[in-house]
Design brief:
By secondary structure, this protein is of the alpha+beta class. Helix content is 53%, strand content 19%. The strands form 4 sheets. The chain has a 5-stranded antiparallel β-sheet. A 5-stranded antiparallel β-sheet has the order 7-6-10-9-8, with helices on both faces. A hairpin with a 4-residue loop joins strand 14 and strand 15. Helix 4 crosses helix 5 and helix 10 packs parallel to helix 14.
């Protein structure tokens, strides 16, 4: 391995120096080319100026000859060609009697552009540049032999190559001795590592790196087995902990976090909790921190109930007597977090329901008892007064009966007790409801309208009747005299819309209209005979069948309830 290391290092040095040498040569080559191009442009500028001056003093032929001689005197490798506007060569300093037309030459076509091409006349690569003279009568074309790597570049490559060979030799020799000296301490460490993994190897080689590599491989195998076992156990523990619905957090005696599961991270709204983080950094709730400190300093257990983001939690904080958590006289601390929202909500709902139900039943019952006592005591004696009291007793009894019936229906819906299902026709259901409610609509002079194409849905007929019946009763009851209630059935959208132009619902009450016993105007609702349970029944039916319900209403203009049924049969 040591030999491979020396060879690798030598090759890296070699290719690095070779790259630098070639790069330097290419840069010199490019710079030489740029210098040649600048020189050619300068010569062309001088040629144009010289020709212009000479033509002012003598004939064109003499001026062209003098100009070419002055340029070739400056540079023996410079080729000067003068061409007339028809493409005929008037003068060429490298060859006489050129007959070819030069108008198609690239340098003539692209005046001012340096062209590199092979010269058929001179049989070598040339660099060309052409331009019109200042009188626009002649093309002046200059050419120089195409440049190769200059003598300076050749020298750089030659001496650089020799230096490269010398550096390579020095590198190999120094690497050999330096690595041998540097690996002596590693030989000692290799022997120690051998004893750790099972004693010194019997087949030691002369290459320290090979020996160390073998010992490391043996140690690596043992360590990987241990790590694999520990990782597997840790993954099992993490899976169990993260599968818990309860949040779990364990702290040491200094209230530094030793373990936390996913549910606890969600509760404390943090995903990044490093081991050793302080409990006070996770939560600033003083009750939790005080209870944690108490559990760490003495044997203690405490329950804390808190609400957060509309949910309710029970937090148990208690002492843990584990050696890996304890410190001197302090204990570890365990903290469990249980979501009790459903229990709390259920208990609260029961309290609210019984309170509301008692209140709703108390009013008609009080009225019944009061009127009965008036009759019994003879306070009302005339036939008209007795009939009035009896009518009121009958009316309130019916209201009590309706409340009880709807309470029972709501209980059945909550417990998902349903009749056998069948494909109900909403057009037939609506027509029957219109007939049943016609008397009430006539009393309020409310017109009932049914439009659209029918569709069916698999559900209990009584639920379908209650769903639409409660919406229709409200639309009639809370409508204005002479109003309209329109039911539109859209088979293509699987939607049913119940719309009225009655008193409407205030915007601030729209979010609560499906609550049990909730009324927008309690006095008016009781007067009109509402129980406060109709829309609660509607909501539970829609939830049981996966029906979406949308409410649009504007105070004083009416309300619109839209039911959207699932595309697939329930």
């Amino acid at each position: 391995m040591r030999k491979r290391l020396i060879i690798s290092h030598t090759l890296i040095v070699f290719f690095s120096l070779l790259f630098l040498l070639i790069s330097f040569a290419l840069i010199l080559n490019a710079k030489n080319g740029e210098a040649s191009e600048r020189s050619l442009r300068n010569y062309l500028s001088v040629a144009k100026k010289t020709l212009s001056n000479e033509m002012a003093l003598e004939s064109d032929d003499a001026a062209i000859k003098d100009m070419s001689e002055s340029l070739t005197t400056s540079s023996k490798t410079l080729r000067v060609t003068v061409i007339d506007l028809e493409g005929n060569v008037i003068l060429d300093t490298f060859k006489d009697g050129i007959k070819e037309n030069h108008l198609t030459r690239p340098e003539i076509v692209s005046l001012g552009t340096i062209c590199y091409r092979y010269s058929d006349t001179l049989k070598e690569n040339m660099m060309y540049l052409a331009s019109l003279d200042e009188t626009n009568q002649y093309y002046i074309r200059l050419a120089m032999p195409g440049y190769d790597v200059s003598s300076l570049v050749d020298s750089v490559l030659l001496y650089g190559s020799l230096a490269l060979v010398g550096v390579m030799g020095i590198s190999v020799i120094s690497d050999y001795f330096l690595t041998k000296k540097a690996l002596l301490p590693l030989r000692e460490q290799a022997d120690k590592l051998s004893s750790i993994v099972g004693g010194p190897s019997s087949d030691k080689k002369d290459d320290e790196l090979d020996d160390i590599s073998k010992d490391i491989n043996e140690a690596d195998t043992l360590i990987k087995d241990k790590i694999s076992t520990l990782t597997s156990e840790k993954e099992k523990l993490s899976f169990i902990l993260d599968s818990m619905n309860q949040g779990l957090l364990v702290c040491d005696a200094d209230l530094k976090i030793s373990l936390i599961n996913k549910a606890a991270k969600v509760f404390f709204e943090t995903e990044q909790i490093d081991e050793g983080s302080s409990l006070v950094k996770v939560t600033i709730d003083p009750k939790i921190n005080e209870a944690g400190e108490k559990a760490a300093s003495q044997e203690a257990e405490e329950e804390i109930k808190i609400s957060k983001d509309g949910r309710y939690y029970l937090i148990n904080i208690y002492s843990l007597h584990q050696p890996w958590l304890a410190k001197e006289k302090r204990h570890g601390v365990g903290l469990t977090i249980t979501d009790i929202t459903s229990e709390y909500t259920l208990a609260q709902s029961k309290r609210d329901f019984f309170a509301n139900a008692s209140h709703e039943l108390k009013s008609p019952l009080t009225c019944i008892i009061g009127n009965a006592e008036l009759i019994k005591e003879g306070v009302v004696s005339s036939k008209e007064e007795v009939d009035s009291s009896l009518n009121e007793i009958l009316s309130e009894s019916k209201r009590m009966n309706e409340i009880i019936i709807q309470m029972l229906q709501l209980s059945e819906l909550e417990n998902k007790i349903q009749e056998p299902k069948e494909n109900v026709s909403f057009k037939l259901i609506t027509t029957k409801l219109f007939n049943d409610l016609q008397n009430e609509a006539t009393k309020k002079k409310v017109e009932l309208k049914l439009t659209g194409e029918d569709f069916s849905f698999l559900m209990a007929p009584s639920d379908a009747s209650s769903l639409l019946g409660n919406l229709l009763e409200n639309a009639i009851r809370y409508n204005k005299e002479g109003g309209i209630v329109k039911v539109e059935i859209a088979a293509s959208l699987r939607e049913i819309t119940v719309e009225d132009n009655g008193i409407g619902i205030p915007k601030e009450d729209l979010g609560r209209i499906f609550e049990r016993f909730y009324r927008v105007d309690k006095a008016k609702s009781k007067k009109l005979g509402g129980t406060g349970l109709g829309l609660a029944i509607v909501k539970h039916i829609t939830l049981n069948y996966g029906i979406a319900i949308k409410v649009d209403s504007k105070l004083g203009e009416g309300s619109r309830f839209t039911l959207r049924f699932p595309q697939t049969k329930n």
